[in-house]
């Protein structure tokens, strides 16, 4: 193909959508029509005649064809085909509707009746064209008769009667193309045996090639293809060798035929696993096709190379080759469809689902039934379902039902497509019923889906049985190379059956060959499973990295999708696990490790900061009240940083005296002080390659501050009592619950050290400002406690929850943790009530150091903000809780409670009677609530 037709250069950015854009395809189509027109005429055709018959668009096409060297303009405004043009036309004969229409319009223009007959037949091989030919007389009558037999006879028993091709002379090449294409059409229309028989006959001694020299043309490769499709590989290869030798390169058809046979031989070699031979054959085809100017054949070689690349799991290369092939084959049905099919598979494996969907959707109509289409339709439907585009899947299913004849293969293909659709809709029972009718358990695509459906229905044991049968079948067929998909499914089934260690083993095997999984298999399911497994066990770091991998994969998959497609995709693939994962931590802070729990805005803002600092190596200063989770946050910074694989070493600077701290941080030499019996590496050295967490850094003495500053500035230090300089690669995260800036102003902390440590400042919010996190964390700690004692988790009564929400939590998460653990132990019932909780909270308050902030208005207003209601309701709630707590402390005694609260007994009684819970707490549940007027007064109280 001439460069003039490559409107947009092939680039890796090309997508099927861009390559198949109408504007891009149109010139190629017009070129074909022009070439056909030029070739159809026995004599060079006048351009004006052509334009009259076919319209001006064709005239433009003719010019394009001339520019491309496919036609020649002769003096007098006539058009004649150049060498390979006949070939170009013939390949498209019958396959493209416009070409058939063109043939019909050209037929009256042909001067020779033979040509008119052929054109009419080409225009409508099974309908009107044939009827008109039947009534025709003359030399074509016997051919018409033969074709009629061929077209009408769906069984191999009826052979076409011999046709007399001798008088066709120069048109033998035409006849060869026509017969080959007619055979393809027969196959596509569900009469494969008839199509095969037609070609076999035409190649025989009484057929076309026996009578007309050089008429092998398109018949030989077609025959070879048919033999391969029928599983007669040996016979096909022997025929191809013979046919190739018999062909000379005298005509473009012979060259085409020979190269086509070679492509097919390469495919046979590839299927037999001889990739070296296949590559050699494809390379020779590409070189010769380039030399002969056969662009289509270069395109076919590229399709073959793309298949090789895909099999070697080089998907990016496969995509590039596929796109290049598509450019060369633009409009060449059905080769273009084969290129699109391969492209679709490569895109799918790369996780580029929308492009995969576009390529597969475009590929389908041009593929041959029953061979490619029956296999490709369920795959394309699966891709639609994967994207949640059930409407498109339905459309394809309907097309498949209309296309596939009532053959066992057709039924299988339709059943699979339907089962995919049912699975996508969550109609698992229906999917199982569909699959049950389809065939044996170990037939791979049926087995995969059956396991999916059984798992979804919670029938894990049955799923295991089906999977075993499937594995056995695959094992027998494929030897040692098990598809990674099998291991993945094995992991899911094992997990569903509670066999975590088998699940882990299977996952490891699946992950060893991620490239063998289709994108949807690996990308979502394996990662989610890895996560699920890692959440069940393993270290924090393992859980973290599994979670990160899952989320990164999720983002990689969904980000390129349009918002609409993403929504569809999520609907189908947001399995509960993934939902929990994503729901628990919204997209922007998803990389917070699982052990840092919380969902409040204040917590999320702090996590977002942590995530940002983690990516750099700058020192970090964490500030927050005691127990807010500073150490945990420091660990999180480490775990999500590039140092995650290195050590995390924590030092509490307040816990040890000055001397010991220095030796603890920097290590010491033997004999450097009493008790230093051996050389000891310090925390700095231990943290080499990782993170050093300096907790309570404000408590370091001035001497310690000076030593630390030196070490941080020079990134080197000496061990205590030593002279050798030790260099380490450590990131320092420091924490303080005192305001360090204030300490600097008060002269208690070195300013230069403060600046060193305060590379980035992150403030962690106190628990009382974290709203619903209190209950979220409390529930989490209850679950932890349940796991440890090995029983079902307890919960808090609504009243206890109210107490938890209202408590100021001076000791923050640590206090909550301790309180929940104590309540879990103390409560005899599954629901932990206020009676158990209130004293624990009270004691905590008594023990807490009075903090100025708590006494001031700021805390109360923060509580009010958390409450979120009106001030009146808030004050009523405060009153209710104060009374409730006091009632608990006073054993429900109203007199004592009133005294403790310093209000009158009658006022207290009014309020108590107006609230069912308080009535119960004071043992007055039998008493009537106050009358409306009294109730209003009670509320005011
Ligand atoms: N977001 C959180 N999710 C789950 N547990 C948490 C969270 N934050 C803190 N904790 C738990 O609370 C306790 C205190 O956390 P941590 O020791 O990190 O706090 P801290 O701020 O470093 O305390 P201090 O200032 O007293 O050293 C630990 O048991 C920790 O596991």
Automatic annotation (TrEMBL):
One of its GO terms (biological process) is regulation of DNA-templated transcription. PROSITE patterns: SIGMA54_INTERACT_2 (PS00676), SIGMA54_INTERACT_3 (PS00688), SIGMA54_INTERACT_4 (PS50045). It holds the Pfam family Sigma54_activat. InterPro entries: AAA+_ATPase, AAA_lid_NorR, Homeodomain-like_sf, P-loop_NTPase, Sigma_54_int, Sigma_54_int_dom_ATP-bd_2, Sigma_54_int_dom_CS, TPR-like_helical_dom_sf. Residues 921-941 are annotated as: Disordered. It comes from the Bacteria. Residues 596-825 form the Sigma-54 factor interaction domain. PANTHER family: TRANSCRIPTIONAL REGULATORY PROTEIN. This is Sigma-54-dependent Fis family transcriptional regulator. It comes from Pyxidicoccus fallax. The lineage of its organism: Bacteria, Pseudomonadati, Myxococcota, Myxococcia, Myxococcales.
